[in-house]
Every structure is written in C-alpha cells, then in structure tokens.
Amino acid sequence: MVRLVDIQVVRADTLSADSLGNRSVEQPIYGSRGDIVDANGVVLAGTVMRYNITLSPRNAVEFTRKTAAGDQTVTVAQAAAEVGAITGQTGDAILAIISSSLAADPASDYAIVTKAVDVSVFRAVDALEIPWIYFEKKPGRVYPDGAVAGNLVGFTSSEGEAQAGLELGQDSCLASTNGTETYEKGADGVRLPQSTVTEKAAVDGGDVVTTIDSDLEWFVQQALAKQAQATGAAWGTVVVQEVKTGKLVAVADYPSVDPNNVNGTANPDDRGSRAFTASFEPGSTFKALTAASVLDAGKATVGTQVVAPYRYLPGNGANINDSSGHADLHLTLTGVLIESSNTGMSKFGELLTDKQRYDYMTKFGLGTETEAGFPAEDTGILHPYDEWDPQTKYATMFGQGLTTTALQVSSIYQTIANKGVRMPVQLVAGCRQADGTMTNVPAAAGTQVVSASAAHDTSDMLEMVYQKAWLSKVWNIPGYRVATKTGTAQMPDGHGGYTHGYLVSVSGFAPADDPEYVVSVSLADPVKLNTSAAPAPIFQEVMSQVLKKYRAVPSGAPAPALPGTW
C-alpha cells in the first residue's frame, strides 16, 4: 500500500514526465520554400515533398508479415535487401548502417537510410510495412523548366540551403520557418496512431515574382547557344530590357545550367549569370554614351565636322588609332559612329573635361551595381578621373580603359532610348506573400541623365549606323526603324595585357521612333568569326521575335537622313 501511494501520489508527476520523455518523439514540420515565378506566373523554381528514409537500429529485428499465403517471417537481411532494391542501395549497405549505428550507440534509435526520395520511392518502401523503418517529410527543390533561366534562378544544396542566383539573392523572401510536432511510440519503437501533436506550426516562404518572360527566355537562350556554338565562342550573353520601365524581360547566358543537375556543369563559372557577374571592356558600343554626353553638354551637334586620321597623337602623349589603316576621313559626329572611328570620337570626347565625362559615366550607372540585386554582381571598373593616365583619358572615350557588365551596357541604351531617363534595372517585381500582398517592390523612379534632345539626336545617329554600317544587311528587320551599334574589344589576359581574343557585341533598340525594347548581345572569343558579324544574327533574330511577340507597332515615318561625311 505504501509503495502504491508512493508511485501514484507522491511521485506521480515525475514518473509521468519521465515516461512521456521515453516515449515522446519530437520532429520538425518543414515549411515550404516559396516559388520563383516569371512575369506570367510560370513556376521557374518550386517545392515538392521529398522523404528521408530512416530506421531504428535497436529495433531492427525480424518480424512477421501477413500475406495472402499466410504469416511470413522476414529477417533483417531480407528487409534490408527489399529496401535497397527500391532505393538503389545494396542490402549489405543498409545492414552496415544498422551495425555501425549500434557499434557507436547500442541504444541507437535513429539512422538515415537515404535522403530526399520522391513519393514513388516513399510509397514503395512504405508498402513493405517494415515496423522499424520510418519516414521524414522534407520539402525538396524542383525546377520544372530545367535550364530555362537556370543561370538566373540559381539553385539550393541538398539540404535546401540557397547557393546561387535568385535562390540566394531573394532568400529572405523565399525562406520558410520550420515548426515542430511530437508523437508517441510504443516499447517496440512503433509510432502510436493518432498521437501526433503540433507544437509549433510551420510558416511557408513567399513567392519571388520576376520580370522575366520564360517563353522569350527559352527562345533567346536557343538563339544564343546556336550562334555561340557556330562561332566557337567561349561564352555569351543576351539582355532584353523594356525601355520605359527598365524591366528585364530576358537575360540569357551561354553556357546555361540546369538547376536540377548543377553537378552536370563542370565549370563553376557557367553556373552563374555572366550578364551580371562578368565585366569586360565594351569597345565601340560605348561610343553612344560619349556622343550623348557631348551633345548634352552643347559641345557638338549631329553634323559637327572633324578630320579623323588613322592615327591621332594628342598633346598629352597618348597614341590613338583606328582598327584598320585609312586616309584622313572627313566625318560628322554621325559619321564617326557609322565608321566607328576611335580617332574621330577622341576629338569629340576631348571637348569635355575629364570630370564632365566621368560624371556622365556615373550617371549612366557605370562603376556601381545595378538595382537588380543579383548576388555577386560585378560593378565594373571605372577609375576616378584624377587617376587616369594620358592613354586612359582617351581610351575611355571609345570603350577601353574601363569595364562594364552586359547589364550596364543595356542600361546605357535604355537611357538613350527613354529620352535620356535612366530607369532602375528590375529583375524582381516583388515578394508575394501568402495573402497575395506584394512586398519588396522596387522603386520605379527614373533619373534624367542627358536631355531628351540629346538622347533623340543620339538615337537618330544610331539609326544611321543601322542603315549604313557594314552589317546593315545582316541585322535588317523589315518594317521597323532600329538604332544600334557594334563593339569589338580585346579581352584582358588577367596580367595587365590582352589576349588574342575579342569580345564582340551589338546593342540597340527598336522601334527607334517610339522605343520599346533594348537588345544587347555579347560573345566572348568567337574563334571562328571574331568580328561583330558574330553577334549580329543573334540581335536580328532576338529583336525580331521581341517585336513580333509583343506586337510592337511597325514604324510609320522613315528615319531622318543625317550626313556622315563632309
């Protein structure tokens, strides 16, 4: 009687707590990571339920399985072989998991057989009804469109941790908060039915809504990959940007990466987006910025005349030359862009002070990251003007002596096309919460970089480039006025010099009479065709598709006829 009172009254609470602790098991409830979707709601990255298969080593004994033919005794070895046949493991491997766990702890109650299996594997193992096999639900990441926008979307680790791209950059929106639940088990380790209690509810992550059009992204990636492979390019990028909003409609990289199989991409540099992370000397596409700056400062007009020699030796000791030998050319500012003359552009650029040109460059967004918020984005290199040596002073007039990213070049052309107003570069429209509200919506206010008249005149000159430059037949888009410029720049060797390779590019916008879209193309070291003739077909194919897809109104009045020579 004394013993009974002691157990049921005196120590009742303590013994109940100890008993519960021996049979109660706590486990996490995983919240779902948010989706990454395109501008139309197409899922680029989503969450599906995966399962970890676990076992209780100390309870791993033979058991009786009821079958149609009667009771069947199943040994541990047989059960392990059955599980392994489904998971792709050997029975011996699973037995080794059991034995090593027991060797470390004879009372071991938990060991992982395999992680992150899909529902079909879960159901097949569950159907075996092995009493000491258990399952943990764990959400896994899936990328339904594979490599489409893969370089932008990024990927997570096997543990669900953000590693790259938007997965990493937007992790604060996407990340979920795990909850906890407890259940009770019997002496044999089997979970007791209807004993689960939720202690803390899980909270799902928000959805990242991008500005990308996944259909167009697929098309652009195909066009880029086809020409990059045909020309033997090491890598390439294409940017498609809305003129009036700054939104990125497509950002394609070659080579591309499939986030479902990141390890299949051998070169780590191919797993990110070089459009954001790789800066380069832009070459002659940069001349549009210098021309717009000179026009805005009132130092020249589209018809201002210069004599452009093959080699120009200004008084400060710099040495400037054009890409090929020629007699003196009598060019207007328009003609300098058409002929892409370094010496001619140098004579216009020196009409501004170094500080004036530097200020224009920074207002165009050079030397800083864009507003897109992409992880590891390169700022490019723009040295302060008071650190320029004599050669850099002139080289920065025609796209050398500094570096830019593909996004920065696209932003330059967006600014010129948008009446001189630079819009923040947008890749993410916001974070959509569970109740449908949008947070983290980026600012949409623009900055007047050059006057509307200077931007308009620059656009007119770029139209003359489109019509009269040597690639006019290659990039022709019937029915539309187009403004464009090519670039060819030597690639640095990483040791202060240059390789024999070139980065070739084409940037422009259309319809030039009412600009809607910028397309900027870059190919690095296309060994089979190392001129701007390599990216020009990509520009023509992509811009044609963009204008058709978004039903851009064909141009009405013809482009103005500006003289290039005098």
Automatic annotation (TrEMBL):
Membrane keyword on record: yes
Pfam families, A to Z: PBP_dimer (PF03717), Transpeptidase (PF00905)
Principal location listed in the UniProt entry: membrane
SUPFAM superfamilies (UniProt xref): beta-lactamase/transpeptidase-like, Penicillin binding protein dimerisation domain
Residue span, Penicillin-binding protein dimerisation domain: 29-193
Keyword hit for rRNA-binding: no
Domain (Penicillin-binding protein transpeptidase) ranges: 236-543
Keywords from the UniProt entry: Membrane
Subcellular location: Membrane
Assigned protein family: Belongs to the transpeptidase family.
The protein's name: Penicillin-binding protein 2
